[in-house]
Design goal:
This protein is globular. Helices cover 31% and strands 17% of the residues. By secondary structure, the chain is of the alpha/beta class. The strands form 8 sheets. The chain has a 7-stranded mixed beta sheet with strand order 5-4-17-16-15-6-7. Strands 23-27-24-26-25-28 form a 6-stranded mixed barrel. The structure holds ligand MGD (2 copies), iron/sulfur cluster (SF4) and molybdenum atom. One ligand MGD binds next to helix 17, strand 16 and strand 23.
């Protein structure tokens, strides 16, 4: 038998067709518009049965009274009543806000995340915190401040595509296929990436930007476009505010390509050529990615890129950058139950906290501050759902100390990851194939897709929604979770849209809540306070930030440890996603590990010669925060003076954890984002 659903083994959320026999998952394939011989194959999805039936999965709740004891298997009843008792104890002694929820990437953004937020609200704590400060939310807020939403690049129909800090070949196969197909039809391709990626190799222009300097590059492209008069005058006149101020800033000599070329490590002629190609080929879209995230400059750099889209008239046109039509769904977060005088631990980032009524809190570093430094107050109990913060959060040493300091830690996961070693209770979750939920995109884009359960729960694992609903009952908060099953909860949330689980099941490829339309701004304006594209943002000005990006100049070398770069002269790039792994996941799945058995730091041949390093040598990478020891591989995909450290391997060996090196003391003032992505370091060869 075959069924349609959505894969959630990574955040790409591909529509898939699964093969099932006698309730067992036998295999799965992506659904794609490409002819079968041209489709990109996802190794993780191919390994789905191995992941689902892995012998390493936790299949029963595990409990221990203290960290000195071993875990013992127990029933759901005992585990959940123990969790409820311990959380209540913390609430009685320190207030509900001393309990926090932390979610990683896997259990899903969007609709399912609402259940955790709702539970925390009913409990009385505002602290339900996601990891968006290091993922796309920091970028999303910059789009939103500019034109009211995060755009969706319509690459398949574009005539010019800019890939800005994204590696879709490994991270989002559907988008990669759209780029390949557009390219085959003759679309121009510009890639902005310090690394020679798959698409950089195929690009018409590759801008090998210096890590962390995208904002400066975008300003110099704006300089060229304005100077050459290549902007869309009619669109700007009717739909933008602040173009004159932008001209004053961008035309300043400090953003002239010749002036910034050395800093950016890019030839001025190439910057001008890329700017002209982008601005004069319509429609054009910009696919921005995680290369802009995890940078100290994420907010204003993304704004500068957003303004490129706007002034060239590429917003909300076919083949350009689409403004999504949000689905009207009910807000079920119950934030009104949180006592009004209780502020979240993330309160020092108000613009980030309040930018969207339902996206939740994402300044995750503040949680570690609250546990370790008890500022703004102490957090004593934590539930980690679908995350592995010991490996994935900035400055792992701080994170480990924080988790150790907690009075009580619950981990909800499929596997006993490094974070689970600090837990008192581990609750076994199901994989994405064993649960029904609204797909994450279903809150933002018009297309609503159901991720439907296709096989029964394995062992005694339970879907995240059920764990949350049941925990609510054990906490005496059952009245707020009146639904008998997740279908009822989804139907209540979808009610304003006129959609339902039943309708979605009849249309597994998804349903539109409203017909897709372009150029909505002509009738509705943009979803910003002024209803225009806010090149100049009064909201940012009144909060004390540059209202036009980089009005007060681009900062000098805005990546971690630049102040001590005489001792740490090499820039490290972290975070390459290989297509066989998702962050810290799947290293123990044999068929996937075979594809990429061992991590290697990549170093440019010229730097290797200088340091007397050969492929296979073991090196120590050091920053003021810690060290990583790994073998090296000489490779010219990285530029000189840069190394690339593989990502996620800290799950396998703590000495391979790139977040031993990262710095949580410098953060973006709006989004709290640290520079996990790139930082200065030093390389030492083993004597
Ligand atoms: N230095 C550096 N730091 C980074 C990054 C980087 O590139 N460099 N990347 C950042 C980014 S963008 C992200 S998104 C984060 C990722 O950070 P995390 O979300 O912490 O990373 P994962 O390894 O994906 O952890 C997911 C955990 O969820 C479990 N899991 C999988 N499916 C489910 C499920 O359905 N339910 C439950 N309950 N659990 C499940 C997995 O077994 C795994 O243990 O890391 C960030 N940190
Ligand atoms: N296979 C797989 N797929 C995944 C994931 C996974 O773990 N594995 N994770 C999912 C998640 S949570 C996320 S957030 C997405 C991320 O997906 P992407 O946004 O595609 O992230 P990366 O693969 O890290 O690619 C970012 C690109 O930015 C480049 N880069 C690094 N530094 C800079 C810089 O300073 N400037 C510029 N312009 N570029 C830079 C990198 O070289 C890289 O090519 O992937 C999702 N998909
Ligand atoms: S890229 Fe692979 S693992 Fe990620 S959602 Fe798509 S099919 Fe699943
Ligand atoms: Mo992410």
């Amino acid at each position: 038998m075959t069924k349609h659903t959505v894969c959630r083994l990574c955040s790409a959320c591909c529509p898939i067709e699964v093969k099932i026999e006698e309730n067992r998952l036998l295999g799965a394939e992506r659904i794609s518009f490409m002819p079968p011989n041209k489709r990109l194959v996802c190794p993780k999805l191919k390994a789905a049965p191995e992941i689902v039936y892995s012998k390493n999965r936790i299949l029963k709740p595990l409990v221990r009274k203290s960290r000195k004891e071993e875990f013992r298997e127990t029933s759901w009843e005992e585990a959940l009543s123990f969790v409820a008792e311990q959380l209540q104890k913390i609430k009685d002694a320190h207030g509900a806000q001393a309990v926090s929820w932390l979610r990683g990437m896997a259990a899903d953004w969007g609709a399912p995340w609402d259940y955790a937020i709702r539970l925390m609200s009913a409990f009385g704590s505002p602290n339900a915190i996601g990891n968006g400060s290091v993922c796309h939310v920091a970028r999303e807020i910059a789009h939103t401040y500019t034109y009211g939403a995060m755009t969706v690049p319509m690459a398949k129909d574009a005539r010019c595509i800019v890939i800005w800090g994204k590696n879709d070949k490994n991270t989002a196969p559907a988008m990669a296929e759209a780029i390949i197909s557009a390219k085959e039809r003759g679309a121009k391709l510009i890639v902005v990436d310090p690394i020679r990626t798959f698409f950089a190799n195929k690009a018409d222009i590759w801008l090998q930007v210096r890590p962390g300097h995208d904002g400066l590059l975008a300003m110099s492209m704006l300089h060229e476009i304005i100077q050459q008069g290549l902007y869309d005058e009619d669109f700007i006149e009717s739909y933008c505010i602040g173009f004159d101020e932008l001209c004053d800033v961008a035309l300043d000599d400090r953003y002239r390509p010749e002036k910034v070329a050395r800093t950016l490590w890019i030839d001025a002629g190439l910057i001008r050529e890329a700017a002209r190609l982008y601005a004069s080929t319509k429609p054009a879209c910009i696919i921005d990615g995680n290369g802009l995230d995890m940078q100290l400059e994420v907010f204003q750099a993304t704004r500068a890129v957003a303004i490129l889209r706007a002034i060239t008239g590429n917003l909300d046109i076919p083949g350009g950058d689409f403004i999504p039509q949000p689905v009207p769904i009910k807000n079920i977060q119950l934030k009104e139950l949180i006592p009004p005088n209780v502020e979240p631990v993330t309160k020092s980032y108000p613009l980030f906290n309040n930018f969207h009524p339902t996206w939740g809190l994402h300044a995750q570093s503040c949680l570690i501050d609250a546990i370790l430094d008890e500022k703004p107050y102490a957090v004593k109990g934590l539930i980690v759902q679908s995350g592995n913060p010991v490996v994935t959060m900035t400055e792992s040493n701080r994170v480990s100390s924080a988790l150790e300091k907690l009075d009580f830690l619950v981990v909800i996961d499929l596997f006993r990851n490094r974070t689970a070693e600090f837990a008192h209770v581990i609750l076994p979750a199901t994989t994405c194939f064993e649960k029904t939920q609204l797909n994450r995109a279903s809150m933002r884009n018009s297309l609503v897709v159901l991720q439907d359960q296709v096989i029964p729960w394995v062992g005694e694992s339970r879907p995240d929604w059920k764990i949350i609903f049941d925990l609510a009952h054990y906490l005496g908060l059952g009245q707020y979770f009146p639904w008998k099953n997740v279908e009822e909860a989804i139907d209540e949330q979808l009610e304003p849209s006129g959609l339902s689980v039943e309708k979605l099941r009849k249309h597994p490829q998804g349903l539109y809540s409203s017909a897709l339309t372009y150029e909505k701004y002509r009738t509705d304006g943009f979803p910003t306070p002024s209803c225009k594209v806010e090149i100049f943002s009064h909201r940012l000005e009144s909060a004390g930030y540059d209202p036009v990006p980089y009005k007060s100049g681009f900062p000098d070398d805005p990546i971690s440890f630049s102040e001590v770069k005489d001792q740490y002269p090499i820039i490290s790039i972290s975070g390459e996603r290989r297509n066989c792994y998702t962050h810290t996941q799947f290293f123990h799945i044999p068929s996937l590990r075979k594809l990429d058995p061992e991590p290697f730091i990549e170093i440019h041949p010229a730097d290797a010669t200088k340091l007397g390093i050969e492929t296979g040598n073991e090196v120590t990478v050091r920053t003021p925060k810690g060290e990583v020891k790994m073998k090296v591989r000489i490779s010219d995909v990285v530029p000189q003076q840069v190394i690339r450290i593989p990502w996620g391997w800290g799950e396998v060996n703590p000495l391979w954890n790139v977040n031993n090196l990262t710095d949580d003391s410098r953060r973006n003032p709006i989004t709290s984002t640290p520079s996990n992505r790139s930082f200065y370091c030093r390389l030492e060869k083993k004597a």
